[in-house]
Write a structure and sequence with these properties.
26 strands, 4 domains, Elongation Factor Tu (Ef-tu), domain 3, alpha+beta, elongated, six-stranded antiparallel β-barrel, transmembrane transporter activity, 38% strand, OB fold (Dihydrolipoamide Acetyltransferase, E2P), transport
């Protein structure tokens, strides 16, 4: 088989590499140092590469590996909090606002006073409770007395029933007022005439931050009116957007790699918690993912944009580095070492079909031209094919 030296341009990249090589070795380098091509198999021609070229182009060898391999689906999403993490602060009883010193975005802790409400009705509630509560001891004693007298046929049933009704109604009234006072954060058990007050505190029910304030100092907050919105920071999740075509491949428990554009190089590990059951008008579904390490939630901010990669279930496949596969003339090829010569290597250009792809590896579908012992050029092959 007659060899011939490539003197015409194989490709722009080949010319650039050859020029660089000749500049390094001098214009007097022999033609045997050029890449040689000879007629080969039906897969393509053989390519001869010298040891010096192999070293200069920083080429490397590798073999296909049969291992469990997963691809990833790249998606986008946003950091959100569950519904139970959003708290609207309102009032069971209206009142004038005072002591409001919060700012939007300010952190709050559970039990912290957010502001105060002032209303004369609060005084009446406390007064009514104290009056009802003070009558209970007398009414209970009268009820017990009438019960005894009625049992001994000394008193009439009418007196007994009236004493029972008075006691039970006052007891119910006192209990009702006690519950109403609890709703405005007044402890009825500690209430005395000397500590009746018209101003009551409004506490934060969660740890989080203030997302929005809907009132100002001195304004009147109506019954059930919205005062402010709090967001909990105790649990946040990623809401990812998946296209309809990938919906059937997503399930609870799948691993997710989260990337935050503002945190370059930082990867967070998450897991699919729930897959939406309806498709929106854009033919998409929502997938909820939770961080595996809850401490990483400190890096997140509600509404933050995230990029994610959903890791598909692994399967056994032949894989090589993505740099092994060369796209040329509308096909994918690998360069297989067929012979080690005294001065270099003879490579065969073999057409391949590819499957799944990850960041660094690519699946090669079964091919009779290689096996686990086959040496494949894993780096530098792009300079050898047009």
């Amino acid at each position: 088989m007659k060899n011939y030296t490539i003197k015409s341009i194989l490709s722009i990249s080949l010319v650039a590499s050859s020029l660089l090589f000749f500049q390094c070795t001098g214009s007097g380098a022999p033609e045997s140092e050029a890449v040689e091509v000879e007629a080969g198999t039906t897969s393509g021609p053989f390519i001869t590469v010298s040891d010096k070229q192999f070293e200069t182009m920083k080429m490397t060898w590798g073999s296909p590996k049969l291992e469990e391999f997963s691809e990833g689906i790249s998606v986008q999403g946003m950091v959100k909090v569950p519904v139970e993490g959003i708290q609207e602060i309102s009032a069971y009883f209206g009142g004038y606002v005072s002591g409001l010193e919060m700012l939007e975005g300010e952190a709050v802790r559970k039990g912290q006073v957010l502001f105060y409400l002032e209303n004369p009705d609060f005084i009446r509630l406390q007064q009514d409770f104290l009056e009802a509560n003070s009558q209970l001891s007398y009414l209970q004693a009268e009820y017990e007395r009438q019960k005894t007298l009625f049992g001994e046929k000394i008193s009439s049933q009418k007196n007994y029933l009236k004493a029972e009704a008075d006691f039970q109604s006052t007891k119910a009234k006192a209990e009702s007022l006690k519950r109403q006072l609890a709703m405005i954060n007044i402890n009825a058990d500690q209430l005395k005439p000397e500590n009746i007050r018209s101003k009551v505190p409004v506490y934060s029910p969660i740890n989080g931050f203030v997302e929005a304030i809907h009132l100002v100092q001195g304004s009147f907050l109506d019954v059930a009116g919205k005062a402010m919105t709090l967001i909990s920071t105790e649990h946040m999740h990623m809401e990812l957007v998946i296209f309809e075509k990938d919906a059937a491949r997503i399930h609870k428990g799948q691993k997710v790699q989260i990337s935050i554009p503002d945190l370059a190089g930082k990867k967070l590990e998450a897991e699919v918690f729930m897959v939406g059951k309806s498709i929106n008008s854009d033919r998409q579904i929502n997938v909820h993912a939770d961080l595996i390490n809850e401490e990483d939630e400190a890096l997140l901010v509600t509404g933050m944009f995230v990029e994610a990669k959903l890791i598909m279930d692994p399967k056994e496949a032949w894989v090589v580095p993505v740099t092994s596969v060369i796209a040329s003339e509308g096909q994918n090829f690998v360069l297989v070492q067929r012979e080690k010569t005294e001065t270099g290597f003879r490579l065969e250009k073999v057409a391949v079909q590819t499957g799944l792809t990850s960041e660094s590896m690519i699946e090669l579908l079964p091919n009779e031209s290689f096996d686990a012992n086959t040496l494949i050029l894993t780096k530098g092959g792009f300079n050898l094919l047009p």
